[in-house]
C-alpha cells in the first residue's frame, strides 16, 4: 500500500514536471523565434549599412579622377570640338588607366567612364557591357544628370542581369563655370564583391533583380542543389505584392520552406524600379520532438498553455482520487487494529480478527501476539512452603520430565527436594493452570523451569488463541 502511495505522489510530481517542461519548451521556442527574427533584421541592416559605407569610400576614391588635369583638359577639348572626339579617345583611355592605378588596392578593379557636358560617353575602361561601343549617352540617368550639375551621387544600375554599384563625380575645370563633364566608377556585384561583404558581416545573403536571383553567397552547396534559388524566386513574387515591401522597401520575416527564413530589402536608385534588392537568410528554429508531439493534437495545436494546464489538472485529479482511496484503505486497518487492542485490554488476549489484516498491519498484530504469548502474562512458582500432607489426585504423566528437571535445578540451587513429591508438584500446577485459564480465558498454560535470583522457579505462561507453542 505504501508503494501505491508513493506511486501516486510520483504521478503528481510527474504531472507537475510535465506541465513545467511544456511551459519551458513553449517559452524557449518562442524566445528563440524572437531572437532569430531580431538577428535577421540586424543582418539586413548590417548589409545595408556596409553597402552605404562602401559606396562612400568608392565615392571618396573617385576624387582622384575628378581632379586629374589630363581628364579635365581632354573634356575641355571634347566640349569645344566634339567632332574630334574619336581621335582623342585613346588619350582619354590612357588617362583613365593612370587614374585607376592611383586607387586603393581594393578599388583598382573599378571600371571608369567619362562623359562630357552633354552626357555622351567619351571613354571607358573595364566596363564589360560597353565594350565595342564607342558611342553612347548616359545623361538620362539621374545620378549622371546631378553630377553634370555639380553634385556627387551614387546609384545601382542593372545591365544584362548584372548589378553595378555606381559612383559619379563632376569634373570641374573652372569653379566659376558648370562642370565640363563627369567621371563614373562602376563596380560589378560579382563573387569577389559579395565575398568581401560576407567576410565583414558573416551573413548569408543574395542579390536579386527582375524576380530572379543574380548572385548569392554563404549558402551550402546542398542548399543550392536543392533548389534554394528557385524557392527564393518563387517567394519573391509573393513578397513584391505586399504593401509594406512596395512602400517601405523592406519585408517582414518570410519563411523559406521548413528550414530557412529571410528578410527582403529593396535597393535604392535605378534598381528600385527594376525590382533589385537583397535577401538575408538564417535557418529557422527547429522544434523539439516533444513540441512536435504536442502540435499533432488537433484541438490543442495552437493553445499550448491550455493543453499543459489540462494535462496537469487531469493528472492531479487522478492523483487526488487515488490518494483519497488509499487514505481510506489506510484508515480502515488502523481502526481494526485499534479495536483489537481494545479487545485485548478488555478480555486479556489479542482477538482472532487480527489474522484478517494484511501487509504491515498483520505483522504488527503478530508481533503483539508474540509479545502477549511470551512476555506479558507469566507467574512464578517457587514452592517455598512444602505441604507435609500428601495430595491424592490424578497425576499428569506429561509433567514428569518437567518435575525431574525442576528437582535437578533445586538441588543445584541448594534447596530441599525431600518434601516435593510428584503428586504435590502436579497439584500446584493444576491449581495454577485453573487460575490462569479462568483469568485469561485461554485454552492451556505452558510451564517451564528456570533459575531466577539463585532460586529454582517454574514459569507459567497462558497460551493465547492462535499460538503455535507446544505445551511442555
Number of domains: 4
Protein structure class: alpha+beta
Number of helices: 15
Shape: rod-shaped
> What fraction of the residues are assigned to beta strands by DSSP?
15-25%
Overall number of strands: 13
* Separation of the first and last Cα atoms: 40 Å
Protein name: Double Cache domain-containing protein
Organism: Pajaroellobacter abortibovis
Keywords: Membrane, Transmembrane, Transmembrane helix
Transmembrane segments: 307-331
Protein described:
This is Double Cache domain-containing protein. Keywords: Membrane, Transmembrane, Transmembrane helix. InterPro entries: MXAN_5187-like (IPR048134). It comes from Pajaroellobacter abortibovis. This protein is of the alpha+beta class. It folds into four domains: about 140 residues, Beta-Lactamase (2-Layer Sandwich); about 120 residues, PAS domain (Beta-Lactamase); about 70 residues, no CATH class; about 70 residues, no CATH class. It is built from 15 helices and 13 strands. The strands form three sheets. The chain has a five-stranded antiparallel sheet with strand order 2-1-5-4-3. A five-stranded antiparallel sheet has the order 7-6-10-9-8, with helices on both faces. A three-stranded antiparallel sheet has the order 11-13-12, with helices on both faces. The C terminus is likely disordered.
Amino acid at each position: 500500500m505504501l508503494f501505491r502511495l508513493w506511486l501516486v505522489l510520483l504521478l503528481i510530481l510527474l504531472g507537475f514536471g510535465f506541465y513545467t517542461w511544456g511551459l519551458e519548451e513553449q517559452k524557449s521556442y518562442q524566445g528563440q523565434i524572437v531572437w532569430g527574427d531580431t538577428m535577421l533584421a540586424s543582418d539586413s541592416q548590417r548589409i545595408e549599412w556596409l553597402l552605404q559605407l562602401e559606396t562612400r569610400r568608392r565615392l571618396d576614391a573617385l576624387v582622384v579622377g575628378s581632379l586629374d588635369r589630363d581628364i579635365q583638359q581632354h573634356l575641355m577639348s571634347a566640349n569645344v570640338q566634339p567632332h574630334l572626339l574619336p581621335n582623342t579617345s585613346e588619350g582619354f583611355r590612357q588617362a583613365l588607366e593612370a587614374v585607376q592605378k592611383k586607387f586603393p588596392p581594393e578599388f583598382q578593379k573599378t571600371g571608369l567612364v567619362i562623359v562630357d557636358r552633354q552626357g555622351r560617353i567619351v571613354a571607358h575602361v573595364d566596363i564589360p557591357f560597353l565594350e565595342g561601343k564607342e558611342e553612347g549617352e548616359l545623361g538620362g540617368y539621374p545620378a549622371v544628370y546631378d553630377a553634370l550639375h555639380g553634385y556627387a551621387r551614387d546609384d545601382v544600375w542593372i545591365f544584362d542581369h548584372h548589378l553595378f554599384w555606381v559612383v559619379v563625380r563632376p569634373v570641374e575645370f573652372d569653379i566659376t563655370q558648370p562642370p565640363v563633364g563627369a567621371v563614373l566608377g562602376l563596380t560589378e556585384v560579382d563573387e569577389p564583391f559579395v565575398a568581401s561583404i560576407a567576410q565583414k558581416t558573416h551573413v548569408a545573403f543574395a542579390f536579386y533583380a527582375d524576380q530572379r536571383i543574380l548572385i548569392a553567397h554563404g549558402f551550402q552547396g546542398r542548399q543550392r542543389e536543392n533548389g534554394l534559388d528557385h524557392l527564393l524566386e518563387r517567394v519573391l513574387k509573393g513578397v513584391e505584392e505586399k504593401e509594406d515591401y512596395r512602400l517601405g522597401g523592406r519585408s517582414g520575416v518570410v519563411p523559406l520552406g521548413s528550414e530557412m527564413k529571410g528578410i527582403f530589402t529593396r535597393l535604392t536608385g535605378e534598381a528600385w524600379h527594376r525590382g533589385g534588392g537583397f535577401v538575408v537568410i538564417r535557418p529557422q528554429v527547429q522544434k523539439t520532438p516533444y513540441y512536435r508531439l504536442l502540435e499533432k493534437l488537433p484541438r490543442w495545436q495552437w493553445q499550448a498553455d491550455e493543453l499543459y494546464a489540462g494535462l496537469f489538472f487531469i493528472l492531479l485529479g487522478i492523483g487526488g482520487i487515488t490518494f483519497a482511496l488509499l487514505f481510506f484503505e489506510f484508515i480502515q486497518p488502523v481502526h481494526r487494529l485499534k479495536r483489537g487492542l481494545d479487545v485485548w485490554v478488555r478480555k486479556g488476549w489479542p482477538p482472532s480478527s487480527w489474522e484478517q489484516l494484511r501487509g504491515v498491519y498483520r505483522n504488527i498484530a503478530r508481533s503483539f501476539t508474540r509479545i502477549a504469548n511470551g512476555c506479558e502474562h507469566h507467574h512464578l512458582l517457587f514452592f517455598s512452603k512444602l505441604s507435609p500432607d500428601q495430595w491424592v489426585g490424578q497425576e499428569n504423566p506429561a509433567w514428569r520430565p518437567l518435575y525431574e528437571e525442576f528437582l535437578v535445578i533445586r538441588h543445584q540451587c541448594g534447596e530441599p527436594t525431600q518434601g516435593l513429591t510428584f503428586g504435590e508438584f502436579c497439584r500446584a500446577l493444576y491449581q495454577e493452570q485453573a487460575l490462569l485459564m479462568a483469568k485469561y480465558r485461554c485454552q492451556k498454560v505452558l510451564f517451564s523451569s528456570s533459575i531466577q535470583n539463585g532460586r529454582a522457579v517454574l514459569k507459567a505462561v497462558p497460551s493465547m488463541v492462535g499460538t503455535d507453542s507446544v505445551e511442555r
